[in-house]
């Protein structure tokens, strides 16, 4: 059979358009494809939720690819290892309580589990704004990342979601936009993004879990974004907190949906 380039082209446009159209309204829209966002996507999709995840970059994985300073190994504590075990990711004990894993195996596997569970990942797409009605965030405003990078004057599109997750890492991009453009208070001491503090791994790892929560109506905050929002410190290349935060987001959203039924 001779290959036909037009069929190849149509297959891509058709399939992508179908996927994109089916995800213009979702249960949960996750912004950011780092470890916390991807883990949340997996557990939510596995629980049967309709999930779309938007990642600005072409590649998924956020800060996990590079391990620490581009040494592509990550460290997790016991509780973090238990999440890696769910994904069947190989870990090795380095010293009691410290486990290492290959950064590339970790992120590719989590990504694979998330997509196979049914989460739809839209890479190379940036979220630039939110949709607000009656003091609640109900949707996201999205644009192709190359449009954003080139500064082209192109209007974005909109998708609607019952729950939004800011998993944008150190940048807290969704929260910044809410603070800047909406008359909504965040559920922090100051009512706004408090800003990340300097490195303190022990404290930061604990706070990441604590700070993972609904931060304003319709918006949850996960991973490093949660710590930056609530004024917590950074933790560097220990990733247990990120994995546990993604898991907690899924638990919170699933529990909330149940209580609303
Ligand atoms: O930074 P990132 O990996 O977030 P995380 O899940 O994990 C943090 C750790 O990697 C590390 C750490 C150590 O434990 O502190 O930094 O909290 O991934 C965030 C992802 O969000 C994307 C960004 O490209 C990155 O891949 N992102 C950020 N803003 C947007 C976005 C946006 N507006 N639209 C789409 N993607």
Short description:
By secondary structure, this protein is an alpha/beta fold. It has helices at residues 5-22, 35-46, 78-86, 103-116, 145-150, 173-181, 201-211, 223-229, 240-260; strands at 25-31, 51-55, 73-76, 92-95, 98-102, 120-123, 125-133, 136-144, 157-166, 213-216, 219-221.
Give a verbal description of the structure:
With 261 residues, the chain is of the alpha/beta class. It has a single domain, classed as FAD/NAD(P)-binding domain (3-Layer(bba) Sandwich), CATH 3.50.50.60. The chain has 9 helices and 11 strands. It has helices at 5-22, 35-46, 78-86, 103-116, 145-150, 173-181, 201-211, 223-229, 240-260, and strands at residues 25-31, 51-55, 73-76, 92-95, 98-102, 120-123, 125-133, 136-144, 157-166, 213-216, 219-221. Strands 1, 2, 6, 7, 8, 9, 10 and 11 form an 8-stranded mixed beta sheet that branches. Strands 3-5-4 form a 3-stranded antiparallel beta sheet. Strand 1, helix 2 and strand 2 form a beta-alpha-beta unit. The protein is globular and about 55 Å long. The model has no long low-confidence stretch (mean pLDDT 97). The structure holds ligand 48F. Ligand 48F is lined by residues 31-37, 54-57, 62-64, 126-127, 167-169, 171, 173, 223-225, 234-235, 237, 239, 242.
């Amino acid at each position: 059979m001779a290959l036909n380039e037009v069929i190849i082209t149509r297959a891509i446009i058709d399939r992508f358009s179908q996927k994109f159209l089916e995800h213009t309204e979702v249960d949960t829209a996750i912004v950011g494809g780092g470890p916390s966002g991807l883990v949340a996507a997996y557990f939510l999709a596995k629980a049967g939720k309709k999930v779309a995840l938007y990642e600005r970059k072409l590649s998924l994985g956020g800060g996990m690819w590079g391990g620490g300073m581009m040494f592509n190994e990550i460290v997790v504590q016991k509780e973090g290892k238990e999440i890696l075990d769910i994904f069947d990711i190989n870990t090795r004990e380095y010293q009691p309580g410290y486990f290492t894993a290959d950064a590339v195996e970790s992120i590719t596997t989590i990504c694979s589990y998330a997509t196979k569970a049914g989460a739809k990942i839209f890479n190379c797409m940036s979220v630039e704004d939110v949709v607000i009605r009656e003091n609640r965030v109900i949707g996201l405003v999205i644009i192709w990342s190359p449009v954003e990078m080139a500064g082209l004057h192109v209007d974005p599109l909109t998708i609607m979601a019952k729950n939004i997750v800011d998993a944008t890492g150190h940048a807290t991009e969704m929260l910044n936009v809410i603070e800047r453009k909406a008359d909504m208070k965040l559920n922090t001491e100051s009512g706004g993004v408090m800003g990340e503090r300097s490195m303190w791994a022990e404290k930061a790892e604990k706070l990441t879990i604590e700070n993972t929560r609904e931060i304003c109506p319709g918006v949850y905050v996960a991973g490093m974004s949660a710590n930056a929002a609530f004024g917590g410190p950074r933790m560097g290349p220990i990733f247990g907190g990120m994995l546990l935060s993604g898991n907690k987001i899924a638990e919170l959203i699933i529990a909330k949906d149940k209580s609303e039924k």
